[in-house]
Design goal:
Layout lengths: L24 H20 L5 H28 L1 H5 L3 H26 L16 H39 L3 H17 L1 H18 L6 E3 H19 L3 E7 L7 E3 L3 H13 L6 E10 L2 E9 L11 H14 L4 E7 L2 E9 L3
Parallel strand pairs: 2-4
Antiparallel strand pairs: 1-3, 4-5, 5-7, 6-7
C-alpha cells in the first residue's frame, strides 16, 4: 500500500476569504514587506532629497506597519467568522478593519506622541482622511491578493488530490501482505489476526476522507502498523529503530505524512539489499518546532530511482500548510538517506 501524497482539506471557503493563509508567518512577512515597498515607492514622488525621503518613509512606516500587523492579526483571529459571511460583507469587514486600524495608529502617534515625527499640522481637522483612505486601500489590496493566491493554489490542490488517489493502494503491498497472511495462518493464527487488523487499519485510514491536519502521534501509530506488517515479510532483514518524543505527539501535520516516508525507506533501502537494512524514525520537540527525521541505509546496488513524486507532493503539502515556517530537507548523509521535516508546534 502506498498511502500516498495528499488528502486535501474538505473545508472550503469563499475565494476571497483569507482563511488560514493569514495565519502563516511567511504570508504575514510578505504582506508587511509589500506595504513597506509601496510606501517607499510612493514617497519617492513626494520627497526632494534622500534625507527627506528617509524621514517621510519613517513617519509613514510608523503608522502603516502597526496598522498592517493589527489588520493581519485581527483578520486571522476572525477567519472563521469571516468565512461565514457573504462576499460583500467580507469586503466591508476587512475594509472597515483596515480603515479603523490605520486611523487608530495615526491618532496614537499624533495625539499621544508615541511617534518620532509629530507634525503639528496633522492636528488640523480632516487630517485623518489620508490615513483612513490609505488603510482602506491597503486592506483591499491585501485581501484581493489573498483571494488570488487561493485561486492559484486551487488547481495545485486538485492535482495533488488526483495523484494521491491514484497511488493510495499499491497492489504489490496488498498481494505481499495477503501471501504473508496465508503462510502465517498455518503456523501462527494469532499473528495472522494481528497482521490483518493492521492491514485493515491501514486501508481504513488510507480510504478515509479526513482533514489534512492530524496529530503527529496518530501518524507515528500508523507508521508502526505499516512497519509491523513489513517486519513479518522481511524478518531480520528489516531493522527498525524508534526514537519518539511524547512531547511532539500533539503537533499538527498533514494527513498521511509519515507512512509514505517509511514505505519509501523500506522499498528503496531494505528491499534491494540482500542483507536488508535499517530504518530509523525520530521525532522531537525543540524550540517550539516539531522535528521528524526518517533515515534508511542505502544498499550497495541501489534500486532503480523513482520519479520522486511522493517526496515532491509531501514537500508541497507541508509548504501549503506552514509556508516558509516549515522545512523539508532530503539528501544523503554519512551513507544514509535522510528526510528531515520541521514544522511549527501547533497542537
Amino acid at each position: 500500500m502506498n498511502a500516498g501524497n495528499v488528502e486535501p482539506a474538505t473545508h472550503r471557503t469563499n475565494v476571497s476569504t483569507p482563511g488560514t493563509d493569514l495565519c502563516h508567518g511567511g504570508l504575514v512577512l510578505r504582506a508587511v514587506l509589500f506595504v513597506h515597498a509601496v510606501l517607499a515607492v510612493g514617497i519617492v514622488f513626494a520627497a526632494g532629497s534622500f534625507e527627506e525621503w528617509l524621514a517621510k518613509l519613517g513617519m509613514a512606516a510608523s503608522v502603516a506597519m502597526p496598522a498592517a500587523l493589527l489588520w493581519l492579526v485581527v483578520a486571522c483571529l476572525l477567519k472563521r467568522n469571516l468565512a461565514r459571511l457573504p462576499e460583500i460583507a467580507q469586503w466591508s469587514a476587512v475594509v472597515a478593519l483596515g480603515t479603523g486600524g490605520a486611523v487608530g495608529c495615526w491618532a496614537l502617534q499624533t495625539y499621544v506622541g508615541l511617534g518620532l515625527w509629530v507634525d503639528s499640522r496633522w492636528l488640523a481637522p480632516g487630517r485623518w482622511l489620508g490615513p483612513a483612505l490609505a488603510g482602506a486601500a491597503f486592506s483591499m489590496m491585501l485581501f484581493y491578493w489573498f483571494g488570488l493566491r487561493a485561486r492559484v493554489q486551487g488547481p495545485a490542490d486538485s492535482s495533488a488530490r488526483l495523484a494521491e488517489l491514484q497511488s493510495r493502494i499499491h497492489p504489490h503491498f496488498l498481494f505481499n501482505t495477503l501471501n504473508t497472511a496465508i503462510t502465517l495462518a498455518r503456523v501462527d493464527p494469532a499473528r495472522t489476526e494481528r497482521l490483518l487488523e493492521d492491514l485493515a487499519e491501514l486501508f481504513r485510514v488510507a480510504l478515509a476522507n479526513t482533514d489534512n491536519a492530524v496529530t503527529l502521534g496518530s501518524e507515528v501509530e500508523l507508521a508502526r502498523r505499516y512497519l509491523a506488517i513489513e517486519k513479518l515479510r522481511f524478518g531480520d532483514r528489516l531493522r527498525v529503530s524508534w526514537e519518539i518524543d511524547p512531547a511532539a505527539a500533539s503537533a499538527r501535520v498533514p494527513f498521511l505524512l509519515l507512512q509514505p516516508l517509511v514505505e519509501n525507506a523500506v522499498r528503496h533501502g531494505v528491499e534491494p539489499s540482500p542483507g536488508g537494512g535499517e530504518v530509523r524514525i525520530l521525532t522531537n520537540l525543540r524550540r517550539g518546532h516539531a522535528q521528524i527525521v526518517i533515515t534508511n541505509s542505502v544498499p550497495l546496488d541501489p534500486s532503480r530511482p523513482g520519479a520522486g513524486m511522493a517526496l515532491r507532493n509531501l514537500r508541497e503539502r507541508v509548504q501549503l500548510m506552514y509556508d516558509v515556517a516549515a522545512q523539508f530537507d532530503v539528501g544523503l548523509e554519512h551513507g544514509l538517506f535522510r528526510v528531515q521535516i520541521t514544522v511549527p508546534f501547533v497542537s
